[in-house]
Amino acid sequence: MSAPAADTLERLADLLVGFGANVQPGQIVAVSSEIGKEPLTRAIAASAYRRGARFVDVVYADAHVRRARLEHGSDEALATVPSWFGERLLALGEQRSARIALTGPVEPHLLEDLDPERVGSDKSAALREAGQVVNQRTTNWTIGPCPTPGWAALVHPELEPDAALAKLWEEIVYVCRLDEPDPVAAWRERMATLSGAAERLNAAHFDALHFEGPGTDLTVGLLPSSTFISAAFETVDGIAHAPNLPSEEVFTTPDPERTEGVVRSTKPLLIGGATVEGLRVRFEGGRAVEIDADHGAGTLRSMTQHDDGGARLGEVALVDREGRIGPLGTVFYDTLLDENAASHVALGRGFDFAVGEQDLARVNDSLIHIDFMIGGDDVDVTGVTAAGERVPLLRGGSWQL
Predict the structure, then answer these.
(1) How far apart are CA 59 and CA 205, in angstroms?
(2) Rounded CA separation 164/159 (Å)
(3) H helices present in 18-175, as ranges
(4) What is the separation of C-alpha 386 from the centre of its chain, rounded to a whole number of angstroms?
(5) Could you give the C-alpha distances from 310 to 134, 355, 390, in angstroms and in order?
(6) Helix or strand or coil: residue 354?
């Protein structure tokens, strides 16, 4: 299979380490990867050590081991999560470590023949401590894409394997702005634009957002202190970092009890190793009371039943057409990329740092956080004030505010 040039791997690794996670001298760096992503993982380790990391701890997941658990493990096994999974995350936070995770499926069809509800019932990746560490802002972290032959074949099935992988790498270089002479400067400029959009949204003090499009008539209520932010974060100790690379969104935490209506997902969703296509969700009183799809609905339904907050929203995000992902028209089957191509919502855990102290108790709590895309050029987004005034926000994917 075609592999990227060594300098491409190094540039992506340096972007994730230096700008994304912003690894500091003396930090421990935890890297979450998969078997099949070794070249970029090793480049990340080398980049982190060049920046002065004290220790790089890589954890590789194996999709085939997970399949064995799903295929042969008992129901008790699927509900078992060793205590040290969460304890490791909390320790990383306590020791003010950096975290880097790589996305993109290695073998996207591996679980297709298994019971989708059983796939969704696996709790091994649902760690409450993950949300705790994010909300406490104790680690500087980022998530970035890692092309693999399996992922490339899924995204570009019309191409021969080598050409598909080369095409996917070309797209990742573009959406990560690695084609720019100074990718970090390019990202800082884009983040400033997104922060400006967030400031305009916050100045309007909207009570709700209304999404209207084919199969969609959805109102998402906001909390009084819901604050739109871009993915330009800072730890409690003042370390700036970019949690998602690429990132083209502004987002906030909604009121988990005030989502009403129906919504159609505008892109497929790959969750837990299963593909959900043609997703349709109906909300009443903030809860997803109906979850249907052309394919894979059982997996999502099962995941939302992990706890009471799994069927409520923890995030609503707006994405315009000025980013680099949406205009490509590529369906990446990877949430990191697809959620930054279109406006989206997320079932499950909300973000404490996107609301004021007075609303912390109302933020949705859950083991899961599952984004699905609901925006597009044919989906209008309107801001609604407490007085009922309607203000156009996105039309044809372009900002109106």
Answers:
(1) 43
(2) 5
(3) 38-50, 63-72, 75-78, 83-94, 116-121, 128-136, 149-155, 161-175
(4) 30
(5) 18, 19, 30
(6) helix
Instruction: Say if residues 55 and 29 touch (Cβ distance below 8 Å).
Output: yes
User: Distance (Å, rounded) from C-alpha 166 to C-alpha 371?
Assistant: 28
Which of 306, 381, 301 lies closest to 349, judged by CA?
306
Query: Which pair of tokens denotes residue 355?
Result: 């609301």
- In the chain, where are the structural domains located? 6-146, 204-399
Position 255, amino acid: D
**DSSP three-state, residue 252:** strand
- Mean pLDDT check: name the lowest of 115-119, 209-213, 374-378: 115-119
Q: Which helix (H) or strand (E) holds 287?
A: strand 287-292
What pLDDT, in 10s, does the model give residues 75-99? 999 889 999 999 999 999 999 999 9
| Two tokens, residue 29 | 């760096």
Euclidean distance between CA atoms 50 and 401, whole angstroms: 43
Q: Tens digit of pLDDT for each residue in 219-265?
A: 999 999 999 999 999 999 999 999 999 999 999 999 999 999 999 99
Given CATH 3.40.50.2020, say whether it is the number of domain 6-146.
Answer: no
pLDDT tens column, 314-340: 999 999 999 999 999 999 999 999 999
Judge whether 136 and 99 are in contact, CB under 8 Å: no
Give, for 88, the enclosing helix (H) or strand (E): helix 83-94
Are the C-beta atoms of residues 45 and 58 closer than 8 Å to each other? yes
Name the one residue in this structure whose structure tokens are 């409690």. 236
Per-residue confidence (pLDDT) for residue 1, from 0 to 100: 43
pLDDT of residue 266: 96
Chain centroid offset of residue 307 CA: 20
Bridge partners of 229? 251
- Rounded CA-CA distance 7/162 in Å is 19
> DSSP label at 36?
T
Angstrom distances, CA of residue 365 to CA of 130, 193, 223, 253, 344: 12, 30, 15, 11, 19
Residue that has been written with the tokens 């990132």 in this structure: 247
Could you write out the DSSP letters of every residue in 305-348?
Answer: TSSGGGGBEEEEEEE-TTSSSGGG----S-HHHHTTTS-EEEEE
